[in-house]
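Help wanted!
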Amino acid sequence: MNETSTTPATDAPNSAEDPTAKRGSLATAPSASSGPDRADLRPENINDAVIRLAGNSQDGIQSAGAFLARLAGRSAQEVMTYMTIPATISGGPSIFQVRMGTGEVLSAGDEADFLVAFYQHSYQDHIGFLKDGGVLLYDSDNVTPDLGDKRFVYVGVPITGLTVEALGGTAKDKGKNIFILGLIAKIFHLDVEKLTILIKEKFAGKDVSIANTAIMAFTAGYAYPVGNVLTKQYKFEPHVPKEGERAQITMDGNQALAYGLIAAGVRYGSGYPITPWSSVMEILRSELPKYGGMFVQAEDELGAVSMALGFSFSGYLAVTGSAGPGISLKTEAIGWASMSEIPLIIINVQRGGPSTGLPTNVEQSDLFQAIYGGHGDSPRVVLAAATVEDCFYIAIEAARIARKYSTPVFILSDTSLATRIEAFDEPHLKDLMLDPKPDLSPRTGFKPYAVDQITQHVPPGSPMLDGKYPLVTGLEHDEMGHPTGSPKMHMAMTAKRRNKLRKLAEEIPVPEIYGDAEGDVLLVGWGSTYGPVHDAVKLAREHGEKVGALHLRHVHPFPNGLEKVFARFKRIVVVEMNDQGLYGFGQLATVLRARFCEPKIESTTKTDGLTFRVKEILERVFEGRSFAARKIPREGPAIVHADPSSENVKTLQEVVPQGVG
Amino acid sequence: MSDTLTTTTDAPREKLTKKAITADHPTWCPGCGDFAVLASYYKVLEKRQLDHEKIVTLAGIGCSSRFPYFVNGYGAHFIHGRAVPLASGISLARPDLHVFLFGGDGDGFSIGGNHLNHGARKNVNLVYFIMDNFVYGLTKKQTSPTSPIGFKSKTDPTGAIDQPVNPMKQLISAGASFIARTHATQVNHMIQMIERAMDHQGFSVIECLSECVEFFPGAFDPANPRKGGAFEVIQEKTWDGTPEDELRHDVTDELAAYKLAQLPFPGVFGVFYQNDRPTKNALEKKWIETTREKTGNASDLQLLQKTFDRMK
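Answered by r_m:
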């Protein structure tokens, strides 16, 4: 340790005016006033940390973040991530936030404990998200922070230069993400062995030099004597396994949807590329052939939904999907599915709308479209996934309902679920997997549209022993599917199509209430607001509020019996990411008010294209109350660090044995 | 999967008769050309004795698209213009079925034009029969994509001004692998074309000039010998090495087909083009088989478990 660097923090020169703060310079940089000795490097136990990586989209911060998330998953820690991607083809500011914890992790965290800034703009845009006492780890080659701001701990590392040095200066700017991963691994005492395996797995099948380069960058980052500049290091409390606990798997919401569909026995589908839905179709296109199925990229959205209906007609429940604009195009055919009662799963990975809107931002403004989109009375089912894990299970639920009620079923997801990575308990696949083959056994006296029954179609290829074959049609029809203009028949068939979904409403359980089962405020959410809403309830209860949360996965039809839940609370606040509309209520709030005629129902909405922060929800629900946020455990005054002296930093050639990897 | 689906009856089948495949009485106007198409379809099904339960009759929207109601067999009456992808889905998932798609010029060339092009390009195995009457009949006389310039309709009271689609040219350039043209008054020719389309593996399209007696009467008289016209049939090469054969049409020759398509109305009839390139059905099947083999024909559970193991 360089004793001369123990200048009191308060006297720290602004490194913007301090050329010596650059890499390789002598350390005039200040450090902790106490002159820490190595004993301080004993890691401090923590159970939760929010790490935000801020850079540009081409820096690979997503993959660095994904390594952290997968490591957390493998270490049986809870993990939640959050990312933003620019709507450009390449480049543009981007973040990846990972929240890891030993306890329950419900949301990605309002504020970061640890901010990694690649560039000056990353620092400027995100320093506001660093909590007081948090650590700013910055690339001192590119970032000059305001060291006068005493709220934070500053750790400058010449990331760009060291990475170039570590990798032999060949790949310009590449590998910084993995170098940082090494640094973070050191600071948080992460399991290096597991991380190395993850890195090797990630690059398995590629040129061996790519994996070697990555390992080299990682080792360089890990070997960097960060202890010289950061006196605190952290260690996650070890996870205590519960009985019957299963291994965790780590994936994003679109993956979970795709694999959920596969588990549910969906073997055919068709789609058209659109952000943020595309990766679902990409996965299904390459995965389904393994299962003997097929996913076809259609010429357009209308072709995609039509082909999916062809698959379903032929006896295989199929999937199509898109984001809002594409769903608009599919709407006519979805009306046909309602009318002809053909089962179909339609995924809408929502983004900001209307029109092209905010293609890479999150919004929940397609609920009305899902419930009501289309002409005529065309009942359908709408489900919404709450978390990444739920994306998996909601796909199974959608397939179950589509088959049982022979109906189109929407699954609403959104940008935040699609792009974030979570770890969750491995599903019991053995109990879940289905592969229903079309039943081609002969029938007799079959009527596809018997008025007093829930329609179940017979796939073509099943002989009709009485020689009478059914038709499937979008015209109003009689029980055999032949057209009719009879007003009586139209009334009967309209009622039949509606009543089967009333039947469904009877079987949907009322969701369990999180928090207080009765009290002052009930927060009602749907979709990806699950995490922040539940975290808000948790925090509010810690502050003595009587609050509960009701989260709806079945948003159309609603389960019966919600009115009993509503009766137990003084206020009901529906939290959703859409506009308050002309009458001051968000989309779910509007439907709930219409359904339950409950004047207590309030609405809080927003359209900034970002997920709700916990604080934001609490400030809206409890105006004027303050809810102190959780702090990273740290003692003493703010500590300012910058580059250590070069005397203390061995050259990378020394630190990283050549030929590593 | 689909190719392992077995049908069900081993009992000797009853003969497929016209009676067995006839359903509702057609709602078409008396004298409509579409009656002849329906009759030809019945005849072909009867002649070829297809398994009744494997016949699938599909349509979009239009006069001619009422077709499935008149056939007793599996079928679907879909939305306007989108029947090609619907039929493609059925054909791709269920190669054991015989997929027949019927429609008109508006359904095929106007609102469904994009799907026609892409169905053709993908070479999905099905038979698509387009009854082209050069006018919108169901909505009572508006200009259609094939209406000739000068045709007076409710939407072009002074005569159509937009250049009509040339169905043959469009289908050739889109990549349809079997393209034929026939005339509703020439039933034997029509039956021949349907049979050849059925026997072809791929996207087989037949354009049939089918008169709308109500809104465009006499439109196709120039190709009807009974009305003083000439029904000129394409002479196909027999590859007999004779000098006459040199002059005959090679159906695999795209440029020659295009030249035939250029001929002034009423043009010629028969097979313009046929190409045995692989169908999407075959290519997808091959991909599935190779992929299945690579997985060691693992069970669904094993496959998904393996994927999840990689995500731990």
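OP: Thanks! One thing I noticed: DSSP finds 20 helices and 23 strands in chain A.
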